[in-house]
Write a structure and sequence with these properties.
This protein has about 525 residues and is an alpha+beta fold. The chain is about 30% helix and about 25% strand. Among the domains are: about 10-30 and about 415-510, no CATH class; about 150-360, Transposase Inhibitor Protein From Tn5, Chain A, domain 1 (Alpha-Beta Complex), CATH 3.90.350.10. The strands form five sheets. Strands 6, 10, 11, 12, 13, 14, 15, 16 and 17 form a nine-stranded mixed beta sheet that branches. The chain has a five-stranded mixed beta sheet with strand order 1-2-24-23-22, with no helix packed on it. A five-stranded mixed beta sheet has the order 3-18-19-21-20, with no helix packed on it.
Length: about 525
């Protein structure tokens, strides 16, 4: 029986113009901006070093897909919004992903979902199928190394932010516990940042205190940083969940300053009684929020669970807002000469709120996709999301300064810069990437010259040479029409009589990531 595929569709006219859709646009991808990520990786040398953190126990003579190729697939996929391994059943045939993964033959597909899944599930023990595993210590060290390399010279002072969040669980994963505060079954990962740089992403069970294991991670990070920068001043910053005597005592013994939130109690409230009355009177008089700062020496009482071994400086904020009291306390090792109480709270401690945005960006890169059975495999997924963040953050730092996206978060960068429709043409010597019209975001100078053409020159996106290993060069060309980077990517040239939608050719429909229905009746 003959099978006919409809290749031309006519839609309701728009004014005097007919609307015609055809599948003769060639190979079209919705990830035309991904080459900026690849160039960022060339600058950071991130993925090759990530691959070195893995042990490959497969027979070298039978290997079709290297660890570097598979890691590139996963990391670039997460950065571009593809969270599931199932997505790679189509992405593996996309020439854009072939270029990103460094494939020497774009006609050959990349690794499929099953091969990628076996890479993630390796446990390090002898197994017939899962023969790839990773070294956790090497991955942890790589994150700190990338941060150190991002600074040309040793900074005088750095602030390390430490915090935790919840990753909800919807199955019977290993290490599953109910957390009363988050009111669900979850993991409780520990994150440590320095500015926008992630230094630690440790998956933990939820049956522990927020500070559980944080001292070990901080010791490791501080040791590696001090090896590179012996004289750097380090300040550790966190909320009251990390206000623990063990952690503060270690900081005091190792030239690390700290500022932690301190949970309020009746004893602390009694100490700031006069200041709270003053703030209340000010609020009654003006009807506006009123703050009064004070500081004092404080030491917790000894209990069975411990207590402070010495008195420490506490800064208190007595605040009255909206008809109620809102006292806050922080404990610090910083002197009053270095940081006055008000400045310490408002400028130093409250600045830790920016770390919340960095943690949200991890969710934008699917760090909460912890659906595998074991803790180790889920830690692997957290690492992959973290590396995707390092790439996008590196693009923001190296390529987007002095642009409208200099402070943009990951979802915005992905939507405005990476998810761009492009027509791909592969020739013997070149890969031609025909992007959107020159009114698009790439023409606005969003690519840093240091990324694409060298210092001191603004790249010409109408024709920019872009080296790809083993493939000659890739050239970006602006089109006279517009390219839509949606689920089904289409190029739309506008004429006086017709608006024609050129979709990917029938032969290459898979590259659009969504297969059109056959014999569609309108």
């Amino acid at each position: 029986m003959t099978e006919c595929n409809q290749s031309k569709f006519e839609f309701e006219a728009c004014g005097s113009r007919e609307i015609v859709a055809r599948f003769d646009g060639g190979t079209i991808s919705s990830d035309g901006g991904a080459f900026l990520l690849r160039q960022t990786d060339k600058r950071l040398n991130l993925l090759p070093r990530l691959a070195e953190c893995f042990l490959d126990g497969r027979n070298p003579d039978l290997i079709e897909h290297s660890i570097l190729e598979m890691l590139s697939q996963r990391v670039y996929g997460l950065a571009l919004g593809y969270e599931d391994l199932n997505d790679h059943e189509q992405l593996r045939k996309d020439p854009v992903f072939g270029i990103l993964a460094g494939s020497a033959d774009l006609n050959e597909p990349l690794a499929g979902k099953s091969t990628l899944n076996r890479m993630e599930l390796g446990t390090g023990t002898k197994d017939r199928y899962k023969k790839i595993t990773f070294w956790k210590e090497a991955l942890d060290q790589l994150l700190v190394t990338v941060f150190i390399e991002s600074n040309g010279t040793a900074p005088a002072e750095i602030v390390l932010d430490v915090d935790t969040t919840d990753l909800p669980l919807h199955g019977k994963q290993e290490g599953r516990f109910f957390h009363g505060y988050y009111d669900n079954y979850c993991y409780l990962p520990l994150y440590i940042f320095c500015g926008e740089h992630v230094l630690c992403a440790r998956l933990r069970e939820a049956n522990h205190d927020a500070a559980f294991g944080s001292l070990r991670e901080i010791q490791r990070i501080v040791t590696q940083i001090r090896t590179a920068w012996p004289e750097v001043k380090i300040i550790l910053r966190g909320d009251s969940g990390f206000c623990r005597n063990e952690l503060m005592s270690w900081c005091e013994s190792n030239r690390v300053d700290f500022v932690f939130g301190l949970a309020r109690n009746q004893r602390l409230r009694k100490i700031i009684g006069a200041e709270m009355n003053e703030a209340t009177q000010e609020w009654n008089k003006t009807g506006k929020p009123a703050r009064v700062f004070s500081e004092f020496r404080y030491k917790t009482k000894k209990t069975n669970k411990g207590g402070w071994e010495r008195e420490r400086r506490v800064v208190a904020k007595a605040e009255h807002i909206a008809g109620k009291e809102n006292p806050r306390f922080v404990v610090t090792s910083l002197s009053a000469q270095a940081w006055a109480g008000k400045a310490l709270y408002e400028e130093l401690y409250c600045a830790r709120g920016d770390m919340e945005n960095r943690i949200k960006e991890q969710f934008s890169l699917f760090a909460d996709r912890v659906s595998t059975e074991t803790m180790r495999a889920n830690q692997m997924r957290v690492y992959l999301s973290t590396m995707a963040y390092v790439l996008v953050s590196g693009l923001r730092r190296l390529g987007l300064q002095s642009t409208e996206l200099a402070q943009a978060q990951v979802p915005t960068i992905r939507t405005k810069l990476l998810k761009i429709g492009a027509q791909i043409r592969v020739t013997v010597r070149k890969v031609w990437v025909s992007k959107l019209s020159m009114a698009g975001p790439l023409s606005a100078g969003l690519g840093e010259p240091a990324l694409l053409k060298g210092q001191g020159q603004r790249p010409n996106f109408q024709k920019v040479g872009h080296r790809i290993a083993g493939l000659g060069s890739v050239r970006f060309h602006g089109l006279s029409g517009r390219i839509c980077g949606l689920a089904e990517t289409a190029m739309i040239p506008d004429t006086r009589r017709k608006r024609t939608l050129f979709f990917g050719s029938a032969k290459n429909r898979a590259f659009c990531h969504t297969r059109p229905r056959q014999n569609l009746r309108l």
